[in-house]
Amino acid sequence: MHPAPTRSRAVVLALLACLVTACGAGTAPQAGVAVPDGVVTIGLQFAPRSGFAVDTDDAFVLTQLGAVETLVAVDGERRPQPGLATEWTQVEPTTWRFTLRPGVTFHDGTPLTADAVVGALRYVAGVAAPPRAIAGAALTAEADGDAVLVRTAAPDPILPLRLSAPGTAILAPSAYAGDGPPSVVGTGTGLLRITEADAAQGVTLERFDGYWGERAGVASVVARFLPDPTARALAFRAGDVDVVLGLPEPAVLELQSTPDVEVQTVPTPRTASLYLNASAPPFADVRVRRAVALAVDRTALAEQALAGSGLPASEVFGPAVPWGGTGPVPAADPAAAADLLAQAGYGPDNPLTVRLWTYANRPELPTLATAVQAMLAGAGITAEIRIGEYAAQEPELLAGRYDMMVLSRNLLTDLPDAAGVLTSDYTCSGSYNLNRYCSPEFDALVAGLVDLPDPAARQDVFARAAQLLEADTAGVPLVHTVDTSATRGVTGFVPDPANRVLVTSELARTG
């Protein structure tokens, strides 16, 4: 690989400096004196795809904008915290009791009651495709005075965390009165009330003065859906939006040097990995898998191939989660890789040729595949790239009819707990075990989570599981994705690595 351009190195240094100093990862930047009752305009990356249906991923937009809330919140360490419920107790193995917060009013003026919560939970549990966080839990709810009893088919040590998922947000009973999806206009409990919602254009919200918590610092927020990254950057440069998310790399350095603009970067729980089919030759041989890991220069992938728009991965989880690895990234060693290949029987007299698949839905993946191909060649492996459509590739992947695949995966889509992804992606019977990795030691470690309710203890297991995957080379994590945002003329904006909260009571215009 060629040396990284100066511009790209500067981006990387800026990203790493931001991470080291926790820039944008928990501390509100000071960008001037707050002006009361201002209006803030935000440019969002993703538009709703299901008409703001609260039981779908559209719920993320609603929680980001401070319009709806869940029974349980989470803190920066991904631990459960009081939300619309102030406390909870596991009264039986399959039953939890959630005590509701007093004095909460929906945006339509009706009070938060146990019956209202029961109705909301029964709705999301009863839809054809419940939110992923509660899918398969067979969740039921029953009013119990000022509390709600929530039952599951099997003991669930992390039910409070499940009820922190945006898809379990509680709306007023009036939201469910129609025949279609629940209405989110004027039916939430958050610090801002939705007054207009257009799934193609954006959302307008106003401060809800009946909010139970700290009063919003803004009088209103206008959120515009700008899925094209170039259009988002242009809108910010033109002053059409005050906050913009998901900046493209070319805009980052320009805005970092622009007066009065605050650029913040946070890691995300999305990881691009090189999946290796361990159920068939050549990757059934762990020596070959380790040779691939040694041949790949993860730092060069992040700094050069992606021009600093990612972080090199030391393991499957990254700095976006408390248990993620932040240690040194394994160094590339093509000579050691060639030695391992020789031990496995591959070399000049028996060259190794493999199929390397990826897809173009995420534009960085073909770039990564091309760079990986070059790195593997340095160790004597010929990789034949095929770029296709993921939907067509998935059946082949699940059936184990592939060699290696560069794929991007969000490891914590809506539940701040890794048990689900570790089970589905890495246990012997996992439904999405693309690496076709199977380790009784790993399975036993993950199985123990069912009896482990303490978040800190669970996070320790997640970290040990990641170490085991790295030791066994169950795939090769390549880079972690980062999100970059910019603000101008506002204060109190703190990007959330979990992408769940954008508007808080601290957000305000400055003057």
UniProtKB/TrEMBL annotation:
Transmembrane segments: none
UniProt cross-references to Pfam families, sorted A to Z: SBP_bac_5
CDD domains: PBP2_NikA_DppA_OppA_like_3
GO annotation, biological process: peptide transport
Signal sequence, start to end: 1-25
A GO term from the CC aspect: ATP-binding cassette (ABC) transporter complex
InterPro entries (UniProt xref): Peptide/Ni-bd, SBP_5, SBP_5_dom
Occurrences of domain Solute-binding protein family (ranges): 80-432
Entry's Gene Ontology molecular function annotations: peptide transmembrane transporter activity
Keyword Signal: yes
Keywords: Signal
Listed Gene3D superfamilies: Dipeptide-binding Protein, Domain 3, Periplasmic binding protein-like II
PROSITE patterns referenced in this protein's UniProt entry, alphabetically: PROKAR_LIPOPROTEIN
Record-given protein name: ABC transporter substrate-binding protein
Organism: Pseudonocardia petroleophila
